[in-house]
Design brief:
mainly alpha; two-stranded antiparallel sheet; flat; 11 helices; disordered C terminus
Amino acid sequence: MGGVNFRKVVPHVRTVRRVSGDDATNQQGASPKGAKKLARNISNKWSSFRARTASGLILGAGALIVLFHGAMATMVMIFLVQTLMTKELFDLSESQEKAKLESAGMRFRLQKWYFYFCAAFTLYGRIGRHFYLTALAEKGHFFMDETTRFAKVITWVIVHHSFISYALYMGGFVAFVLLLRKGLFKYQFAQFAWTHITIAIIFLQSSTTISNIFEGIIWFLFPFLLVVVNDVMAYVFGKAFGRTPLIALSPKKTWEGFIGAMFCTVAMAPVLSTFLGKFKFLTCPPMRKTVWKTSEKYGLITQFDKYFSREAVCQLKHPFIPMKFMIDDVPMVPFGIKMFLRLILKFVYNRGGLISIGRAAK
């Protein structure tokens, strides 16, 4: 029995040894490939991180330079950005059915940009009208010589701005009807609706943004920086810890990146608001002080230079005036949250239980 068992076991042992040797050989051959692949992935991630960091720093520096040239320069930057956004959305709508777009003709495509610039004329014309009315209220006139042809044209446009805006839009609507083509009705009306939704979304938010700018650049810079912090932290946390997909629309976004970015943004908000609130250039509305300057070329008595000026003199308003109260006086806040707030205040303001809303009081 022992001899029989030995003959049965030995081939089995040899077979096992042979298989395990093959596996070891395969593992030795696969190991360098796996290491190269891992190194390549790490290299790609770092190159992507470096490219994103460099482009972010360049764009951020450019945006800050524009911001520190005043509200008017910031408004011009917003107009350029919203124009690029509009182009992207127009291209997105046109990329699906290029054959129908070619059948509709180039004039149909240009009509979308016509509606866009009609909206731009309406929005920014209202701002120009405000400058004109402010000049009349403060100086009694806007031009040194009201009889020049340039002065008459500009005055007529400003006075009749609402009528011109209405006439421009109605002219575009009539042109849209005339450009309708049989067999393309559904496509053309869909593009017409897409155009108006795009313009409405972009100009609604840009108009509120510009209104905030003329109340103080901090109302634009502060949320802008919070968005930057949120985006950067979402990328960092997503790359470091991301495992669970957030939405199918963007497969690279993860719940880990979202949660990490949320906490970092909330933590940075009091730090940024305290720091930015110390600069009057950011908190003072540019509308409060008028610096008149004469333009020899056009004969204008203009106040535009104050919107590019970095000087600011004003009385601080409610959001920037320090208000103090104790954390323990806030009702219905759990003890753990109070302890967390104390740690944040200790780090940000060097205080134990005191909250100061607005500029930090020293």
